[in-house]
Design goal:
four-stranded antiparallel beta sheet; elongated; 24% strand; single chain; 50% helix; alpha+beta; 3 domains; Immunoglobulin-like
């Protein structure tokens, strides 16, 4: 029998004893019922305290579990205005939890979002190495239906090409080196090689066909020169 059933049973016993006391005429019987009433009241108080302690323990266990586990948020969208960089994070039901469960912290080059106890889980997103500095005191978050909007206040109206320095470096790395000392033909070949490597089967067939045709045309031109 669980504690709720025990408490309900003791409360019913007290009601019945109270009813008997109202009808009781003999003092000796009344004294017996009164003693039993006090014992039941004492036991009932203990069970209620036990229930309260168990509820606190369950709450603490849940909090500890949430503190130790967080789902990483990877999917987001972003855009910008002259004043803000805006990051859109979709989280179903986020508008139904207490607003204080949605926490954000900012530094000049980063922000962290923590959404506590949404569907029994924590959700976290940390973006470091923002492309340009932001104004911490004027950055904030807004809670919308199924969405959190993080607003990073720009220090300048400069347009951001991407969200982080890492993304910028990755884009620069992928771009072919076309400085003045680079052979243009070699640079073009590098671009074609990358397209071929990253492309699907149809793209590879197209490039192979174009390569064969170019070689045939080159051979014909050589024959003509002879």
């Amino acid at each position: 029998m669980d504690i709720n059933e025990l408490i309900a049973g003791l409360e019913s016993d007290l009601k019945e004893i109270a009813s008997l006391l109202e009808k009781c005429e003999r003092q000796r019987v009344r004294d017996v019922l009164t003693r039993e009433q006090k014992e039941i009241e004492k036991e009932l108080a203990q069970k209620r305290q036990q229930k309260l302690q168990q509820a606190k323990k369950d709450s603490a266990d849940k909090t500890d579990t949430l503190k130790g586990y967080a789902v990483k948020i990877n999917n987001y969208g972003w855009d910008q205005s002259d004043k803000f960089v805006k990051i859109y994070i979709t989280l179903k039901g986020v508008h139904t939890i207490p607003a204080e469960n949605v926490e954000t912290s900012f530094t000049e080059r980063s922000f962290n979002l923590l959404v506590k106890d949404l569907d029994g889980k924590n959700h976290q997103m940390a973006i470091n190495n923002l492309l340009y500095p932001i104004i911490v005191a004027e950055s904030s978050r807004k809670i919308k239906t199924d969405m959190v909007l993080v607003m990073c206040k720009k220090q300048s109206t400069k347009k951001w090409d991407c969200l982080t320095q890492v993304e910028k470096q990755s884009k620069e790395k992928d771009q072919p080196n076309m400085n003045e000392n680079t052979d243009p033909c070699k640079g073009l070949m590098n671009v074609l090689k990358k397209i071929y490597t990253d492309g699907d089967d149809e793209m590879k067939r197209t490039i192979n066909k174009a390569w064969v045709e170019s070689q045939e045309n080159k051979a014909k031109a050589d024959d003509f020169d002879l």
